[in-house]
Design goal:
The protein has 129 residues and is an all-beta fold. The chain has one domain: Cupredoxins -  blue copper proteins (Immunoglobulin-like, Sandwich), CATH 2.60.40. It is 0% helix and 38% strand. The strands form 3 sheets. A 4-stranded mixed β-sheet has the order 2-7-6-4, with no helix packed on it. It has a 3-stranded antiparallel β-sheet with strand order 5-3-9, with no helix packed on it. The chain starts with 8 loop residues before the first strand and ends with a strand. The structure holds copper (II) ion. Copper (II) ion (CU) binds next to loops.
């Protein structure tokens, strides 16, 4: 099962120093979460080191309940390649992650597309420098 499809990040880059606001709506029938972590840890099970202060939905191991929305924001203060993953159960090691990049410059271009199937839906992300 390619659960990466669940995330549907159509673009994944934000310039260093930008504030990222995430609106994470779980439209599936099972809890899910969103944690920004190192790319190397993307498919490991259990808790992950958060890449930026505040870059996680609340209680990421328990997850955001079906039908609920979690909002959080963080400052993308380090250039690099990261992953946004789900910490519930074996979701991350089953492939529930996607890439997130912080670039030296250029325009922000991340966009969370609509959910597919029974998927959590990170529906929106906005940026302010
Ligand atoms: Cu999940």
């Amino acid at each position: 099962m390619d659960t990466r499809l669940f995330w549907k990040l159509t673009c994944r880059c934000v310039p260093k120093g930008y504030k990222v606001k995430v609106v994470f709506t779980n439209k599936s029938s099972f809890p899910h979460s969103a944690v920004f972590t190192s790319f190397a840890d993307k498919s490991s099970e259990g808790t992950h080191q958060i890449a930026f202060p505040g870059a996680s939905s609340p209680s990421p191991v328990a997850g955001t309940a079906p039908g609920e929305t979690a909002r959080f924001s963080f400052k993308a203060n380090k250039v690099g390649t990261y992953a946004v993953i789900c910490e519930v159960g074996h979701h991350a090691d089953a492939g529930m992650w996607d890439v997130f990049k912080v670039t030296k410059s250029s325009k922000p271009s991340i966009k969370f597309a609509a959910a597919v199937a029974a998927a959590p839906s990170p529906t929106a992300a906005a940026y302010t420098p």
